[in-house]
UniProtKB/TrEMBL annotation:
GO terms for molecular function: sequence-specific DNA binding. Pfam families: AsnC_trans_reg (PF01037), HTH_AsnC-type (PF13404). The keyword Cell division does not apply. One of its GO terms (cellular component) is cytosol. SUPFAM superfamilies: Dimeric alpha+beta barrel, Winged helix' DNA-binding domain. One of its GO terms (biological process) is response to amino acid. Residues 1-62 form the HTH asnC-type domain. InterPro entries: AsnC-type_HTH_dom, Dimeric_a/b-barrel, Tscrpt_reg_AsnC-like, Tscrpt_reg_AsnC/Lrp_C, WH-like_DNA-bd_sf, WH_DNA-bd_sf. The keyword Transcription regulation applies. Keywords: DNA-binding, Transcription, Transcription regulation. This is Lrp/AsnC family transcriptional regulator.
């Protein structure tokens, strides 16, 4: 990956619908060369996907929640990872160091959905203990793409 590839990635990150001609004029390449580089970056896995960045409030998911999770001693960790990957509220799941095993990021419409999520973790016999943090605001928000729309 060279400097031009990095510039192309930066331009696409700002607007994935940007035309090849516009990108090419910015980086000094013909549109066909830009297309070839994007194709190569996608094939190599450097670009994993093209997606939308939605407004969570407009999607009815205005509450951002982080949940620290310690699994039960008898929990099936592989099953938990599959559960996290497929759960519609879990936007991110990170295996972490320290007192907790996982940190998950959720978007919900209202606090009762958090309780429902925790109850579901208990019913699946994953949850040993947890700590829930609700974001009051996000001065530097991340992008938002729900798993299910």
């Amino acid at each position: 990956m060279d400097d031009i590839d990095l510039k192309i990635i930066g331009l696409l990150a700002l607007d994935a619908k940007r035309s090849l001609a516009d990108i090419g004029s910015t980086v000094g390449l013909a549109p066909s060369s830009v297309n070839e580089r994007i194709r190569r970056l996608t094939a190599s896995g450097a670009i994993r996907r093209f997606t939308l960045d939605l407004d969570p409030a407009a999607m009815g998911m205005q509450t951002l929640v982080f949940v620290w999770i310690a699994l039960r001693e008898d929990a099936d960790e592989t099953a938990f990872r599959e559960y996290a990957e497929n759960h519609p509220l879990i936007l991110e799941c990170h295996h972490v160091t320290g007192a907790w095993a996982y940190l998950v990021k959720l978007r919900v419409n209202a606090p009762p959905e958090i309780e429902g999520f925790l109850t579901d973790l208990k019913e699946h016999r994953f949850l040993g203990r947890s700590e829930t943090v609700i974001a009051l605001s996000s001065p530097v928000p991340g992008s938002f793409t729900p798993k299910e729309v």
